[in-house]
Batch of 4 targets.
Target 1
Amino acid sequence: MKAKRSSTCLGFATVVVKVIILTGLVKEINGSDFRISEATIDEIQRAFAERKLTSTQLVDFYLERISSLNPILRSVLEVNPDARSHAKEADRERTDPVLAPSLGPLHGIPVLLKDSINTKDKLNTSAGSFALLGSKVPRDAHVVGKLRRAGTVILGKASLTEWYGSRSLIMPSNWCARGGYAQNPYVDSGTPCGSSFGSAISVAANMVSVSLGTETDGSIICPADQNSVVGIKPTVGLTSRAGVIPLSPRQDSIGPICRTVSDAVHVLDVIAGYDPRDEATHSASKYIPEGGYRQFLKKEGLKGKRLGVVRNPFFNSYNGSLAIFIFEHHLNTMRARGATVVDDLEIPNISIIQNASQSGEMTAIAAELKLSINKYLKQLISSPVKSLADIIQFNIDHPDLEKTKEIGQDLFIGSEMTKGIGEEEKGAIKKMEELSAEGFEKIMRDNELDGLVTLGSDAATMLAIGGYPGMTVPGGYDQSGMPFGILFGGLRGSEPKLIEMAFDFEQSTKARKPPPPHYM
């Protein structure tokens, strides 16, 4: 869920490679230069093709970045000890005249995975908790299998708000038992948000170019927003959740976090699709367009679009901020790019939608959490814990490891007391469906909108309870240098339109800047 140095981690490799320097510059014998930092997937692939760069060199660069920056940023829990050997295999495949023509855009690209996404290898999958350390998963998560088949190099596991922040209401959004307190790379006093903060920080600070996050309510959108990167939270079911530590089958979604819209779309093209192990993908797969999503990376993607702007209550936390002034400038840019902007729209019952206690979200997720985690744990080959009750007891037995007294377990205990999806829970789910139909869906259809656009990440909750997609794109920085994003949201299956609008906006504004020099 959104929440606004581990001694067990595998050692971070410090690799001395003559062609790599910390500025991200790879120098070839012929004198041509290529800068890894801030490079897009397409630029990296061109460097591969021109033999200015190898996957092995790229992995070495990222391992060096992790070794240098992770003690401060604490966004990576562990690195894959087999990453270099997998990169070497990718380099070999690229020189194979039979294989080379069929290699896709993610071939040889390192990827960090949120530490709740199963990998059947030497990496842990622990949701950031010591309680699951050493557990054995039966297979790769479906999305990981698709990434491997696309030729990516699994670089390691990114930190997260432990158990997605579902353990306690007072859990800090940037805290993980295994990883400690994470740091926003832009502003020392700024929050990186949660729960996919490790995935967002690592991409922002050029410790990797591609990562995967998960979202139940804001957990991709918020950290992407506050770390100046692009995040896509797909329509629920567009990407399989099989093999991912669950929270809510109604709301969980897996999506990319990258530095550019085009990079995120490359990843979405690979990970989206039907999976018999996740029934939600059966209905959602109908939304996937023939030819994939890259075709919607259009420079005139805003032309002819109708965009609705919702200010209340999403602008409240920005009162007096430079961000509002910049947002107004961005709206003018969208108009100039051919979009019709329908301003000052109001979502019916938005105060109830945004309140998890009143909307029914907290009631439903409390029951779903227990059912989902218990089901996941039973599927493991081996695990120190077999149920939510075991996790609670583990935390009681290991207060120093899990900081149980400081963090608490109130949400876990409340979930353990639930008895499944009863009448109260069914009523809560029905209420969220009605709030969505009479709120977001109604305003979209009544105004014939292609998408909603707003400032920051607070609208993520409205999108979450209805299973709607959202994309956040870097929008700028406030007076303190803290990043903020521009959020595009739409109805289920509207990813093509969101990509068109987000890509045009990104290319027209070029708002993203790298972190300060001490993180570069």
Target 2
Amino acid sequence: MRPHWPQRLSGQVLMVQLAITTGVVVLAISLFTAPLARELDEEAMHRALAIAQTTAADPSIAQGLLTTRPTPDGPVQRETERIRRATGALYVVTMDMRGVRWSHTTTAEIGRHVSTDPSDPLAGREIKQIDSGTLGRSARAKVPLYDGSGDVVGAVSVGIAYDSVRHRLIGAFPALLLCAAAALAVGAGVAVAVSRRLRRRTHGIAFSDISALLDEREAMLHGIREGVIAFDPRGRIRLVNDEAARLLGLDIDMTDYGLDAVMPAGRTADVLAGRVEGADLLTVSGGRVLVVNRMPTADGGAVVTLRDRTELELLGRELDSTQGLLEALRAQGHEHANRMHTVLGLLELRRYQQAADYVTHAVGDHRSSAEEIAERVHDPLVSALLVGKAVVAAERAVELRVRARTRLPDRLVAPRDLVTVLGNLIDNALDAAAEKHSTDSFVEVELWAEDTTVLLQVCDTGPGVPPEAREAVFTEGYSTKPPARTGVRPQPVRTRGPLPHGRGIGLSLVRRLAERYGGSARVTARPGGGAVFTVILPEMIIPGPVPGAGTAEPSGTGLTMVGGAR
């Protein structure tokens, strides 16, 4: 039966670590014992050689070899046996030049030829080796035996029992095994600790799940319609999904880069880097309104999510415009009813001529104002915007004035962008002018064309913009309006500062659109109080003659009233 292999990543890592630890311990013991065995063999051979050299240096042995016969009770046998017992050698054998033994541990071997080749020591060479003989395997050494004149007269062979060497090696094994067991226990403990930590960090997933999780993660991150950017603890980009790359204009391969290296300085970079705190922060990038949330991670990094609110913002503005038009129609209906009642009263009083004059005057004023706007502003979207905003201004007790210099042809490159810019400026101006609750509150609009450039000014009689806030009003998230509450009509209180809940986007879009066309947007103070917003939009008009350009009145002269307080 095949052994059960754990499915969890932590269990597999534990088994691998235990196997590696065991293998390392076994390898370490093997690498330790092999040199130890060689060292013990070498030590035994050196000892045998030393005993042989000491025996050969005894002059009585060489003398006895020359003057006596090989007998068990001869002087050579007695001296060599004394040396053997004193040194603990296995044997000490003395031989003559013919290889005949003169001494041996077993006396019956005396007078017989040696069992191994004696040619090397008899030729004057010393040898040491591990070999087998009549007394078994031993560590042995052979040296030549010299007489008093220095001639070789024989040889001495000494053997050390190999069993004693093996016993020494075996005797060292318990200590080795104890050290190995301690190392194995420490390694197993570390492996268990690492396995437990890994199990906590991986939530007990299996190896087979990792690939599937990575595939699912990639599919999810690059398939959702919400931008995701992950940062490491050093603030470097770790991950960018397709939607985030599209919304921010980044390259999806811009990982391991710092945010400042791939994005220009500004509010968007500050929000992404966490230098601006808060939830659902609004920012504008490339003309898109984005909602940004930043969530720190446990390792010190962060994950930033981006939601595109451009379409929702545009729909909200269209809804606001529709709401304003509905209120304007309701006001017009109410005013129309009042006029009809007035006409009915005049008819009841039989003042027919006065009734006719009243109707002619009322219809003529409204028609002449709309016709005059249409004559000066030839683009239907822009002229309709002005007429509609005039009705809204009248409902809010603010007079909307179009200056006489206003001239705009119908050859606009992007009339919707101009409507967005002009609509935002008029809305802000109406809010500012309505705050004073004065009978002479008004908003002035001026539009004119110079070659292919459109210039527009919107001024109001509101509280104005302080010099220190004239740049801040064009940044994302900065608003002079209080946050709207559901079901509660905003009170006419003008506050300044960064506010949440989707405020502070209009003027930012105005500047972004102006800069997109290579123009600019700025705000200055109006003489007598209020603010003047000036926007320049180059390349907004298709080249051609400007209608009525030769009859344009000088700047600052003449006003066309298209809406007033009622």
Target 3
Amino acid sequence: MKFARVPLDEAEGAVNVHSLKLPGLDLRKGTRLDAALVRALAGHGLVEIVVARAEPGDVAEDVAAARVAAAVAGAGAQPEAAFTGRANIRARCAGLVRVDRAGIDALNAVDEAVTLATLPEFRPVQAGEMIATVKIIPFAVAGAVMAAVEARLAECPPLVEVAPFRLSRVAVISTWLPGLPEKVIAKTLRVTAARLDGAGAAICHEERVAHTAEGVRHGFDRARAAGAELAIVFGASAIADRRDVIPAGLEAAGGVIEHFGMPVDPGNLLLTGRLGAMPVLGAPGCARSPKENGFDWVLRRLLAGIPVTRADIVSMGVGGLLMEIPSRPQPREGAASHAGPTAAIVLAAGRGTRMPGAHKLTVPLDGEPMVRRVALSALASQARPVIVVTGHDAARVRGALADLPVHVVHNPGYADGLSSSIRVGLGAVPPEAPAVAILLGDMPKVSAGLIDRLVAALQGHPGAVAAAPASEGRRGNPVVWARRMFAALSALTGDVGARHLLAENTEAVIDVEVGDDAAFVDVDTLEELQALELHRIAETARVDARPALDGMEAEDA
């Protein structure tokens, strides 16, 4: 193409180079100037204009774009008609984008006049979605350049394809330990079903098994019997080693472990394997969340029938730092900005519907309102301030806390559920607090010592997001949460706590082993209250009797 500023009377047949907006005339870049347009421009007083004229052998921009697009589009890719030097390429079907990176680099290096841009490789797309675009930058491509481009394209296979999703039947096996709430598993299934739906797949078999190698083995046997084409295992506890429960169960079923771990965060603790022709994924804890993580990268490829080798996984490190996650400490959350003590929140807004005829939180236990006992434990710990969130029958709760140095905040939306009270309580936490202990007002056996142990555990692990009491594989309350989790806690909705956040970030949760049931006993009914009082009376009697028994034993000796 030859560009020049020419007298207007010499412009007919040339291409306009710069867009012009004139009264009653909108002349776009790339418009071929005919006699009528030349007269209209003259009528506006123009005497010259910048134009481009094709030289011998030049290929017009739309023709060039169409030819390049046709050459680069492979299986599952459909070029559209070219316009203004651009030819878009769209997906014919749902699947994953496949690209030849070296071939695209070589094409783009031929000449600056011809460009090809694509979506990243392995990006999931739906039918009709644009996956690539060819753009011719000048108004025409020199014949020699076009010949060089087409010679380069002849040397390589199509550069852009869509690998359609092929697998549609997926088994989900969840291992179970005491303390793992059913709602965590239910949410995991909903999240997984949504992930699969985008690929045209569905859960064809789902079951819970014991968190043992034998339980996992039987789960795989039933998954194969159900005709599953892919199996996913969610562990009640994260996979820690190739010899852990889930990989051991896979090998016991006759399968093989292909790779454990990946340089993608979140997603580090992913296991890949195979049971015959069926791919197997041991899911990391982050796969319980709908947010994209390394699990998605591997799952999508497998659903498209693309093998995922060890080499594929180890190459994912560049770009593998996916998002801000709570377990990744941020500089702005260092000790200097949050140097105060850990705060405590006592949730005391509930209606206690399972204890009709009484206000649960203020019923006496050993002569003292239950919520007061919880607040006293918090005050006896190192946590400060102690924040109590009221809701239902707030005046009665305030009365039970009279003369205690606690900060009471009211949750007018307490009927919306537990999450709303957590949000109100967090709003009262001082900005200098590095963490918060969240206590339930109906757990009167929790002691100051337990709270302090949890606070110390979290302080001793700067990368942790929470510390929770644990016994025999189950987690109890209270939980001490690092400040980096406040946003996730505030985003909770409905009458649910934060248990699923522990499951999603399980690698960054510190389990503090406890030897009694204080972290697991809550009081919902009058029968439970009476049983707790009887237990305390028996314990007191045992302690009172101990000196006398010791004396009798001494006399016998």
Target 4
Amino acid sequence: MTTKSKQDHAIEQASAALSENVPVGKGSHVYLIDGSGYIFRAFHALPPLTRPSDGLPVGAVHGFCQMLWKLLRETKASEAPTHMGVIFDAGRETFRNQIYPQYKAQRPPPPEELIPQFPLIRDAVRAFNVACVELDGYEADDLIATYSRRAVDVGGDVTVVSSDKDLMQLVRPGVTMFDGMKSKRIGRDEVIEKFGVPPEKVVDVQSLAGDSVDNVPGVPGIGIKTAAELIAAYGDLDTLLARAGEIKQPKRREKLIEFAEQARISRSLVLLKDDVVLETAIDALGVRDPQVDALLGFLRMMEFNTLTKRIAEGLGAEAPPPLAVSVGASVRVSPQQVNLDVIEAGAPQDASPAAAVAAGAAIARAQAIDRSKYETVTTRARLEEWVRRAREAGRVAFDTETTDLSALDAELVGISLAVAPGEACYIPLGHTGPSGDLFGGDDNRPQQLAANEALALIGPLLEDPSVLKIGQNIKYDALVMKRRGIEIVSFDDTMLLSYALDGGRGQHGMDALAERHLGHMCMTFAQAMGHAPGAKKSDKTFAAMPLDKATEYAAEDADVTMRLWMALKPRLAAERMATVYETLERPLVPVIVGMEHAGIKVDRDILSRLSHAFAQRTVRLEEEINGLVGHKFNLGSPKQLGELLFDRLKLPGGKKTKSGQWETRANLLDDLAANEEIDGDARRLINTMLEWRQMTKLKSTYTDALPAYINAETGRIHTSYALGATTTGRLASSDPNLQNIPIRTKEGREIRTAFIADKGMQLISADYSQIELRVLAHVADIPQLKKAFAEGLDIHAMTASEMFGVPVKDMPSEVRRRAKAINFGIIYGISAFGLANQLSISREEASDYIKTYFQRFPGIRDYMDATKKQVHAHGHVETIFGRRIHYPEINTKNPSMRGFLERAAINAPIQGSAADIIRRAMIRMPAALVDAKLSSARMLLQVHDELVFEVADNEASALITTARRVMETAAEPALKLAVPIHVDAKAANNWDEAH
């Protein structure tokens, strides 16, 4: 289902009005606004500014709207242009990059906080009812040049609104420039003052002088002044280059002769193209007055309250009320709004973040939660009223009730909404009576709206960018809605707010958050359903719940979510965690929704064959074990296992429980296998038991279980990713967990062969190479590691060489293996005991290895000591991108617990930074795939440091190039790592071959 908000329709109607052509001719005056120049001027004109309701950066949008409104008012009062358009750059790549690949290559990407404002600024132009023009492959300057020529050719006049020197070549009779910031006209005299030559010679001067900003090479050693003198003396560039041998100054003569071709290339770069085939005709730029509803609606959506009032007054209209938070019968402006209002008024931004936090918490707790006041919505009229109230408030808490924890399998049972604390409702859609039939018939069963009818009303609300949707784990609800053709846009997630603010301090589920922040215990499913003690939730689905209890349960979820948002959102600014939330948490939600929705194809036949093979292998291992034991033995019996190992074989390490039985913990066999004192038949028995255990686990966990997860409709497995489950920012996979399939064993790799590409497609695995070691080299500033990574050396061989004095060339594999174990072990705070078990060496030898490691790489010890000091002093550590991981119990008096937490704190900035890097890559990937025109490409899986894609055969190579570029530059521009990031990528028909 495709739905649009009234706001969208208003802007579309305004844009459609522009298609009514007004011919350009004698007497016409065309204003061409350099949109890209406006954006950057606006961005740097104001201090950082965010939208109060959701923290979205809007400083450039605000400044742009101010500048455009000022221009519209001033020109209407004086010159009254007949045509006007704002011209934008469509992208970084243009035809000039084909001429000279280094063109603008040195320019850094735009600031991260500016990127989400680009589309909003284009929306602003349309809201002002001004033509918005861009064209792939060309710069805005080329379009301005083309429009200018066409206007002058038919007798019109042109004003180019810009101060960009590159546009000064266009100045001529009929074409002038206007610098709106300085209210200054730029004509022929001003160009001569700038370049020393008239406008028609500007290109020649720029071709010689080059331009470091755009990476136009020019001729080395020749600047603007010298270039102007040369062009004045010889007339034009071609004449100068042809007569370069006549120049008396030796260096200047030699440079002009040597770099003549470079000057000609530079000319092709700076010369603006004035014959572009335009998609928007110049006649379509006719000036139209702003459409009041569209413009004021857009400004209200952006929460520019002062600017909205000012423009409304200028249009002779009534300003719409600002977005507000309703508390009982009163209406209050959001506490964060004060910061924006202060900036709009031009005063210092001195509103207290602490005051905003206190106000938010107070509003959230202002009313006690009273479930009896929630409304059950069963008529269209009442639902329309709730949707209207949500639009008026500008925000709505939203939650779905379904029949299944898997969003891909769940049937929608109902939806709950809240517009303010205590003001919530439940809309039942799929509740059934005792017989299993849907409620709502000719008998006396309770009524409910048809799902299609309700979604036709709610869908536009969810897709309206001017209304903020607030959810708790909104990823699930977004996927439920996506299956029904509805995209949730403009949202906040209270789970992720908590995760960004309080990672490590506790759970982030609704029940835990409600108790922690609101002092409220949420109703449980069992309470709502009326289950008897001990009954399972799975005994009944939500669809069977009586409507009165369903309303209490579901509407409470929405009510609590709204209150949590009020308590948590103001803390982002106060605790300086807005960047973490805005760049690492919230934008990842739609990416994960897309991945879960896509799923990955799995071949049942391969799994069946593997399951059969594993079963046969298990039987053979059981026979071997029975032979070694001397009788039939049940490996699954802890009692028999304990008696065999410690009573009969007398192996070391046995401990008895209080009941007198031998303790058989999960890693008992692993510990015994690492014990060098055990040999002979006992060691063979233990190793065979471990192999049997691995085989049975692979069979039960994967080859037997995975087919049950294959979706009947899609034929694909749709794993679920938890965004706020780990303390370090790593994603967790479940139902099924695809992150734990072993890749170091032959059998584990065989399981991956069952994950296949669709017909005509290929799977691509793009895997970060040693990303955590690279992060360690950066954060601990280890010269040897940085040098090795910079030179592309084998990092483990280099470490072994440093530690053991063994040449890298022809290094024994066992020596390298030990160094590898130490490299990765150090990251996880491995102890001598742990390293001894891993390498099957004595604890003394392992201790010596670790001691030598720190001697060779003292920076690592310094990092560890500094991190421990940091966590004990502040209770948290940070990743390189500002994510905080809290350890509230770090100063415990329990030495064992304190040591464990210290090791975790040492690892967290490394693992967390690596997790943040791949998050940043994932967030940028969808747009990168669109920009690369990879229409068939889909990102399917994230497995630790690896991303898995599916793409058409003929686009595989291009996808590999794009994925590598995005992943390898993911840390930038926020951070330039001290070591290069490398990604290995490969295409194949199945996951194993692609890895």
